[in-house]
Each structure stands twice: as C-alpha cells, then as structure tokens.
Amino acid sequence: MTEKWIVGVDLGGTTTKLAFINLYGEIVHKWEIPTDLSNEGKNIIINIAKAIDHQLGEMDVDKSKLVGVGMGAPGPVDTKSGVIYNAVNLGWKNQVPLRDLLEVETSLKAVIDNDANCAALGEMWKGAGNGAKDLVCVTLGTGVGGGVIANGQIVQGISGAAGEIGHITSIPVGGAPCNCGKTGCLETIASATGIVRLATKKVQDSSDSGELKNIYQTEGSISAKYVFDSARNGDQIALDVIEEVAFHLGLALANIANTLNPEKIVIGGGVSKAGDLLLNSIKNYFDQYSFPRVKESTTMAIATLGNDAGVIGAAWLIKNTMVK
C-alpha cells in the first residue's frame, strides 16, 4: 500500500509553517510561506492551498496521496464547527469559518485547533511527552500559550478557550497590561516580551554596573537572549530577572498541576532555549508550591520538537480523527 501523507499547518502571524507528514508522525518535507495579512487576511487560506499544490508539483506527487490537512491557528477555536474567534493577529475580526474555508480551497478534509494545543499534541506524540496521556504543555514565546491533554485528548472547554495558561492572573494588583485587556497576566512576565520589560526596568532602576547594564547602555535595548546569556556569566540583574520569572511560572504550574495531576509538564517556545538555567529554578518553586503527591508524580521537561511541534500536532488531529 502506498504511504499516505497528512498536511500539517502551523498558522502564525508572520510566517506559516507547512509539512507533509506520514502516519507515523515523521516529517517527509517541510517549508514555510509568509502570512499575508493584507486585506484583513483574506488571502491567507488561498495562499496555503496554493503552497500545498505547488509543493506537490515540485515533488511530482499526486494529491490523492494526502488524507487531510490539520491546522493549528492562533486563537480560540470551536473544534466542532471549525470556527476561530478573534484572531486579531491575522486581521480576522469576530469569527471566521476556518475549517470550511480550508476544505473548500484545498479540496481536503480539514481539522482545526488552537496552535498551542497542536504544539502540546506534537510533544505528546513525538516529543518530550514521550507518549504521556496526561500532559500540560506551556509555550514561552512572544506570548505564553498552553495546551492541556487529559487521557490523550486535548481539553477544549465549553468555548475552546481551555489551557490559556498565559492569562492566569499572576499579579492581581498593579500588574502590567496584557494584550487580552487584563492586567497582571502570566504572559506579561514569563514571555520573551515580559522578560525584556522586567530586565529593562531593573537595569534602569539599578545603580549597579554589570554585563546586562553595559549591553543596555551600548545597544539601547535588551533581548531575552541577552538576559539569559548574561545570567550564565553571573550578572546579578539578569539572575534576578530569571528568579522572578521562575517564581511566577513555578507557582502557576504548581497550581495547574494541583488541579490536573499531569504525568508531565513540557516547556517549549523560544524562551525555553534557556534550558536548565530556567528549568531548575522553575522546578524549585514548583516543588515548593505543589501538593506532595503531585510533586512526586509530575515530571518537567524542555520540549524537544522546537518549531516542528505545531505541524506534527496538527497532523495528529487528522490521524486521531480520520485515519483508522
């Protein structure tokens, strides 16, 4: 029997990642295209369909080889109707029938879910989750995303908004404003953007010299990478920033684990590249605030799939619902 492929799509505000993935979760070919935000995002799905057809032509592969297309999208998704709500980063206002549009343009069966949920599914299937059926995945990037898997299935909630870990209120009074309209969200602290905000304020307020302060004075700005690099070199301001971020993450993840008792917590996204420098501090606070039985049974790991997690998890949507 000829090997069948699934199309995995990770739709982002800047680029859209695509991949042909076999039924074992192995990437056969991957590529990306710019996400066209012009005209209120009306060309996004058309461009994805064209990209799939173009790539099939380049590889001289017939479209009958594809069993469906799974997509992770940045916003709350009603998985039953395939509608995405308020994907403002894509120029989509209100609700968009994303699954129906994708099926019409590609002539393939489609399944849609939130992008962070797809990353969680990818890590469960082929990554650091290592097949764990009860898993929480938190992605630390420009924002903070989350996916919760219970008994092998994504927890959706009544309106598709379950797993919004980044919008746990971490600072109830006086916190920084979040793009969601609230203040004090975990995302305002533990994202790359939040880390830069914290580090910049600490550098500006401190009279001490050091590597991070020198970078700020020379470059005029700080990146999250600068913070982690400086911390590895012993810079005290950078270490203080990491400790503050780790406290809020450790506390939030302990509360999540106390509620769900997952087998694994997987931390991904660009910020996770800090590795053990961040992970060890998070674990310390997690152990401090988690219920003893939870602390003993829940392990924590850095995600292993990197940018491939989203497309692999999107392919899992098709495998799990359509391939028998």
Summary keywords:
alpha/beta, 324 residues, Nucleotidyltransferase, domain 5, 12 helices, 42% helix
Q: What oligomeric state do these chains adopt?
A: single chain
CATH topology of the largest domain: Nucleotidyltransferase, domain 5
Strand order of the largest sheet: 3-2-1-4-8
How many helices in DSSP terms? 12
Give the overall form: globular
Briefly, what CATH class of the largest domain? Alpha Beta
What is the residue-averaged pLDDT?
A: 92
Order of helices and strands: EEEHHEEEEHEHEEEHHHHHEHHEH
The portion of residues forming beta strands comes to: 15-25%
Count the beta strands: 13
Radius of gyration: 20 Å
Helix content: 40-55%
CATH homology-level superfamily of the largest domain: ATPase, nucleotide binding domain
Number of domains: 2
The structure class reads alpha/beta
Low-confidence stretches: none
CATH architecture of the largest domain: 2-Layer Sandwich
Q: If you had to describe this structure to a student in words, what would you say it looks like?
A:
The chain has 2 domains: 5-122 and 308-321, 2-Layer Sandwich (Nucleotidyltransferase, domain 5), CATH 3.30.420; 131-304, Nucleotidyltransferase, domain 5 (2-Layer Sandwich), CATH 3.30.420.40. Strand 2 (15-22) and strand 3 (27-34) form a beta hairpin. The protein has a 5-stranded mixed beta sheet, with helices on both faces. Strands 11-10-9-12-13 form a 5-stranded mixed beta sheet, with helices on both faces. The chain is 42% helix and 21% strand. By secondary structure, it is α/β, with parallel strands linked by helices. Helix 4 packs across helix 12, helix 6 (192-205) runs antiparallel to helix 9 and helix 9 packs across helix 10 (276-289).
